[in-house]
Amino acid sequence: MAGGVITTGSNPKLLWPGLKEVFGISYNEHPKTYPSLFTEVPSDKNYEEYVGYAGLGLAQVKGQGQSLAYDSMQQGFTTRLTNVTYGLGYICTEEEIEDNLYPKIARGRTRALAFSMLQAKEQNLALIYNRAFNTTYVGGDNSCLCTTSHANVSGGTYANTPSTASDLSEVALEDALIAIAGFQDDKGLYINVQAKRLIVSRQDFYNAIRILHSTYQSATANNDINAIKYEGMLPEGVTQSVYLTAPHAWFVRTDCGGDGYGMVYQNRKAVDFRQDNDFDTRNMKASAVERYTGGWDNPRGLWGVNGP
């Protein structure tokens, strides 16, 4: 990353009138993606901990004159999310500010700083999805975000990814919704987890639109209805994230059945823009800082497929 102080020598063309246009300092931004990928959770500490809990199991037959069966409830896996500070700034000399003939540049620097901060947040949070199948990055149960072997506190495992990955299709999406409908808690009781949103890369976006919005079955000659659309199985629709790096990985966010946040964006401090002048050099300093992190508590908040 280029550093140093912005001087008159950094922008010699800006000291002389007659430039037709100055470009490249700011561009149109993509709509914010991270609010669709995470549930925002406020934080007021250095880190926050999210603790799972295993409830009671299935009721048992009680014979006449016999004692009831008793079950235990116990603490599950703990996930700790530690907030991280991100910041950026720039410095301009007094002379550069005085001699710069193009106010657009001064305004554009502030917009560019805001753009950099937002891009950092989008890319940092998207890393959680991009690393969803990477066993180097694990959660409270010591497993990656999407795996076939998440551990239950009371024993056994569960999956939030298929055993055989496939590219996004109507059939593959239906299989995902069927699997989500069969989610169980740590004691093997069926829980009502609802699919909410489909998340795809830019490469799969138009495929996703056809699958979700076709009146009849997509990419077939069948005269059968599109069951996903007919039943409104994904009420929040589809989100395209240009920050997903695997072109054929796709995800379904769920409501976790009312238990846990699922995908967590932990907001410790909103972005704070400041401007000041250095006493000795009279340089102008502008900076921005914010503090946050991302992760997950209940892996049932996401169904992910690492499409080949």
**Strand proportion:** 25-35%
- Main β-sheet description: 4 strands, mixed
- Helix-strand sequence: HEEEEHHEEHEHHEEEEE
Count of discrete alpha- or pi-helical segments spanning 4 or more residues: 6
Uncertain regions: pLDDT < 50 for 5+ in a row? Answer: 13-24
Secondary structural class: alpha+beta
> Whole-Å distance between the termini?
34 Å
Mean pLDDT, as a whole number?
87
Spatial order of the strands forming the largest sheet: 1-10-11-4
Question: Percent of residues in helical segments?
Answer: 10-25%
Q: Quick one: how many beta strands?
A: 12
Shape: flat
Oligomeric form = single chain
Radius of gyration: 25 Å
List the helices and strands and how they pair.
Layout: H1 34-37, E1 39-42, E2 47-54, E3 74-82, E4 84-92, H2 94-99, H3 103-130, E5 150-151, E6 157-158, H4 170-181, E7 195-201, H5 205-213, H6 227-231, E8 238-241, E9 249-254, E10 263-277, E11 284-296, E12 302-306
Question: Your description of this structure?
Answer:
With 308 residues, this protein is an alpha+beta fold. It is 21% helix and 27% strand. The chain has six helices and twelve strands. It has a four-stranded mixed sheet. The chain has a four-stranded mixed sheet with strand order 8-7-9-12. A two-stranded antiparallel sheet has the order 2-3. A hairpin with a 6-residue loop joins β10 and β11 (284-296).
